[in-house]
Amino acid sequence: MSKVHERSNDQRGPPLWNLIPIGFAATCVIVLGATPALAQSDVQAWGGFLASGTVRGELGVWAEGQIRVTNDIGHLGQRNLRLGLGWEPSPDLSIYGGYAVFRNTPVDDRASSTEHRTWQQLLVTLHSSPKLRLIGRTRTEQRWRENASGTSWRARQMLRGVMPLGKPGAPSAIVTSEVFFELADTRWGVRSGLDQVRTFAGVGIPLKPGLSTEIGYLNQTLIGRDRPGPNHIAQITLVARF
Predict the structure, then answer these.
(1) What pTM does this model have?
(2) Is 96:89 a contact under the CB 8 Å cutoff?
(3) In a designed cystine with 176, which of 95, 121, 129, 160 is the match (CB 3.0 to 4.6 A)?
(4) Residue 3 lies in a domain
(5) Residue 4: predicted pLDDT
């Protein structure tokens, strides 16, 4: 089981399934109501899964996928898949690396594009107590676009806080913030410097041991002149630990 993430000990999982559609619907309503004052903002819905854990000793595997529905939740803008292998030498530390592919489909007349990435990440538990768990994630990515020259080098730093809302097995409040830095310009449009900030607030609902879902609101702020306003995103992720 992936040791740097919180574990679910809930033995009463099935009743909490009822909270998933209610929570996601409520999040969509909040997101839809957040955008009228920001004409350039977009309303989106992201849905995905994350499965990780150890398979033999300290050898870990990582699988993550997501679809992103953009343009006021009316257009399938992106599909992505991230796979990796890792090493978990202690309960509070893991190191992973692997390959990811992203398929982007713009709303306008631009052609669809495929992006390939190699990635590396370090996960560290910074603080752990009954009331709060803090996790830091440092991720680096090397990105290539098909039919385009140049490599994008990007660094991402995330801080994640998990606060249980009751006894073990109860839902948890989750807050994350992730900063993206581009380290090099490319001919396909990447500019070096601070690129974006993603901030998430939501709830984690344990379904059964090793399986949970995270539902909430994600704010994606793009940095730079002539870039659209913040994107308001309803996000749901199915999380499996083994």
Answers:
(1) 0.85
(2) no
(3) 160
(4) no
(5) 52
